[in-house]
Sequence to fold (464 residues):
Amino acid sequence: MNDKHELIQPDRDQPAIAIHLVSKDSFQSWAKTLSGGQRAALAAQKFDGSGYQVGIVPDGDGWFAVGGVANPDELSSWCLAKLAETLPAGTYRVEGSEPGPAVHGWQTGQYAFTRYKSENDLVGPRILLTKQVKAIDQALAEARAVNLVCDLVNTPAEDMGPAALEDIAAAMAKKYSAQLTVTQGDALEREFPMVHAVGRAAARSHSPRMIELVWGNEKAPRLAIVGKGVCFDSGGLDVKSSSGMLLMKKDMGGAAHALALAELIMGAHLPVRLHLLVPAVENAISGNAFRPGDVLSSRKGLTVEIGNTDAEGRLVLGDALTRASEEDPALIIDFATLTGAARVALGPDYPALMTRRDETAKALIDAGTSCDDPSWRMPLPEAYVEWLKSDIADTNNAHGNAFAGASVAGLFLDKFVGEGIDWAHFDTFAWRPVAKPGRPKGGAAYGLRAAFRMVQEKFGAKHS
Fold:
């Protein structure tokens, strides 16, 4: 995304290239309003109004664009994304209607990760006009947040280690006058022993830490946002295969979501007392790596037998959730790239959502439906808690069968959330393996906008 230009701007009747939207059903009747030459131009482009098709139509000394959508009267976030990806640089206006929710895909469709390229072939910016001026600021903010997640996840682990996550949180704290606390070294071992144990094998430059940011009125309802910040996951001594390790720069995707959501909340000045927690580690292999069979202490006081060193994300989250619970928040939301089982069940596009309360799940699912950011609820079955039993400790971090992996991981986390606290857990992939319009291949935000919309509804309307 080109930060020098706002891609969505107020429509003050300035000159702009027209975009006409048609469906496959309405195309033939609409085409009758065109000249023979214009129809021939579209025929040469094999344009028939199918979804995501883009056509260029000559018009005197100029031209206009036409895009295929499912229903021109009910636009989704992605209806204009292909146009944004393929049209020449310029300023555009949708004829006959407002772009509405499609302003989101217009922006994300122009995202590109170019940090490591000496040259790029980016074209832009393509600016879209709208008369819905009041919606522009949130549309811009949400697209920036999504693109921030993409940037952080796409960055290799060498440049996106625990210290880099701290730097990002520090920049946010400075921008929004928030309080930043970072716990490292001996203090980390005392206060967050599982975070320390998981991260202690990493190089000194990637040493583990707990990052906490606090913002907002002390009297406002407290909202805790927790993000798994495993900046690279080798699997530890239960080492991953080379193919399994290839994408593990994305294992801090939960932290990326949490940071982006925190910035959305602070930027919108929501009336909450925000508590952001990012346990930032690298799960590396060296002589002091934690081992299968070790028993770790935790901030909560529970002892944890290590059944698998590759189930490390739930360990660092356990300490973070305990710390969040100590402040008795009205709601905790955590994001984590936690289990392969969630991806087997739901694929990449749906984060697995687990909550203690039905109304919280419904609020998040409804919010996601309203902004094309869906999730799918999975259970926290009490019957499976026994699978985490340990013969020598209070709990094991992994179960010995191949069943219900995502839910069992959620049940482990539930042990560390304070009794009676409203809690939602997103097990997200944070990666898009195949590009779609407005959703490029690579780092991806799933559940971010849904969580923001839900938080706005829950706290903004009632307490502003």
